[in-house]
Amino acid sequence: MKKIMLPIMSAVLGMSALLSSQASAATTFKDVQANHWAKSAIESAVSKGYFKGYGNGLFKPNASVTRAEFASLISRVAKEMPLSEAGATDSFKDLEGHWSKAEVDRAVSLGFIQTKDYPNGFKPNTPITREEMAKWMSSGLMASSEEYKKAFVETKETLLPVKEAFKPGIAQAKLPYLAIAMGTNLMNGFPDGSFGMEKTTTRAESSAILLRLEGVLKKDATSFDDLNELRMVGIKKTNLELVSSLTTGKTSIADISGKRKTFRNGSGSMLFHRLIGVNVSEPKKKKSIYTSLFMTDYGQDKYKNLMLLPIFQEITILPKKQGFDVGDYKNGATDMNGSGMTILNNGLDKKYGYLTIPNIEPAQFFAKHKNGVKVWLVNYVDPKNFKGQYNMDDGSYAIIKNID
C-alpha cells in the first residue's frame, strides 16, 4: 500500500512557539538557568525541532502544554512512522482553521489519539493532563507494535507503585496505559508517591518526556525490564522470578489469587492476592520497580547486609472470632508461612495509602473491619534456603523454592 504524509503547517506552528527545525543545539534561554534540571532536555528538544522558544529569548519552562501542542509534539517525534492512505483528515470539527489541525489529524492517524475519547470536541487549548499524555503515548506504541498490545492486556490487573493505586484506586480501563508509560520510563511518579493523573505538564517536563518517547519508539516492549515486571505481576501475581532466585516452578501464585484459606484455629479466613519481592541482596537479579513503594533506604541497607529478601504479601483478612487479633492470624495461618509474616511499620504505608496492621491496638483495627480488610504484610527470607507452600480451601496451591 502506498504511504503518504499529511502536510505539516510549519509556518503557523512557528507562531505558536513550537516545532522549529532550524533551532540550534547551542540555543540558550534567559529563563532556563545553567542548573535547571531539564536544561539539556530543553536544548535537545529544541535542536531536534520539537520545541521552539519565544521571540524574546524565553522558553517559559514552567508554562503548561495544551492538547494541541502535545499532539503536535508527538506527531513530530513520530515523524518516521508511516501513514496509510486512510489517514485522518478531519478528526475534530472544532479544529477547523486551528493551527494544529494537520498535526492532530496525523496523531490520530498514527493511533496516539482516540477520537472517541473526545465526543464533545478536542478543545485544543485545554491543558493536557498527565493521564491523557500517558494514554496518548501508550496508544501510539500499541498502534506500532503487537508486543505493546500484548503488554496492554497483560497489565490490566497489575500493581502500579503509586498512591493512586490504593487511594482512590485506578480503574482497570486506565491501568494498562499508565503501566506502559511507567514501565517504559516515559513517565514516573512524583516524590510524594503520586502519579499525578490530573496534573498538567510543563514545557520543561514535556521536553524530557518527548526525548524518552523518541527512544522508546525505537525499542521493543520486551526490552524494558520494569514493563516486564509489571506484566509478570499482572499475569502471575508475583515478580519473584525476576527479582530473586526463588521460583514457583510448575505452580503459580495466579492459581491461588482470589482464593480463600480458612484458618486452622477457626478464628477467621483470608483471601490471597499477590506476592511482591524487593531485591536488596542479589546483584544479578533485577531491582524491583516496587522498591520505593515498600522499602526505605534504611531498610534496603539493613536487609542487604543480612542477605535477606523482603517478600510483601497482599491479603484480605476476614475475622470470624470475637476480638480477633494478630495472634489469631499468625496461629491460624501457620501452614501458609503466616507465622513468619511481620507487620509493616516503616511509614511508607501512610505515604502511599495502603493498609497495614497497626502495632498499637490491632484488635480494635480488626473490630472496625469485621467484614474484612485488605492489608500488606512482609516476610524476610533467605532466598537460598527458603521453601514455602500456600494451600487454599479449594485444593489449589503454590510452592515457592530456590530455583537451584
Kindly provide the radius of gyration, computed on alpha-carbon positions and rounded to a whole number of angstroms.
25 Å
Low-pLDDT stretches are 1-26
| Number of separate helices | 15
Q: What's the order of the H and E elements?
A: HHHHHHHHHHEEEHHEHEHHEEE
Shape: elongated
Largest sheet: 5 strands, antiparallel
As a percent range, the share of helical residues equals: 25-40%
- Hey, roughly how much beta strand do the residues contain? 5-15%
Mean pLDDT over all positions? 90
> Separation of termini?
52 Å
Structural class: alpha+beta
Number of strands: 8
Q: Enumerate the strands of the largest sheet in spatial order, edge to edge or round the barrel.
A: 2-3-4-6-5
Explain this structure to me?
The chain has 404 residues and is α+β, with helices and mostly antiparallel strands. The chain is built from 15 helices and 8 strands. The chain has helices at residues 10-15, 39-47, 67-77, 101-109, 130-144, 146-154, 175-183, 203-216, 225-236, 240-243, 291-294, 297-305, 326-332, 348-352, 362-368, and strands spanning 246-247, 260-262, 268-277, 309-319, 342-343, 373-381, 387-391, 397-402. The strands form 2 sheets. The chain has a 5-stranded antiparallel β-sheet with strand order 2-3-4-6-5, with helices on one face. It has a 3-stranded antiparallel β-sheet with strand order 1-8-7. A hairpin with a 5-residue loop joins strand 2 (260-262) and strand 3. Helix 5 (130-144) crosses helix 7. The longest helix has 15 residues, at 130-144. Mean pLDDT is 90; it is low at 1-26.
